Description:
2 helices
Amino acid sequence: MNNKKNKSTSNIKEVDVDVLYQKLGDRWFAFSLIGDEVFMSPVNDEIINGIKADRKSPARNPDETV
């Protein structure tokens, strides 16, 4: 069994980062800056629609579970 891969993924940490959503042409992308690296990923319409719906709803306590 190859444990090398398991060891490298054990250093992954979850962090909260700001995300910029930008529409380029007819597609949406998410951009984040972590340390000195920029990450970009395409975002599907379902995610964008969920974000838009959250912005229209009253503000929630971030510690509140849904």
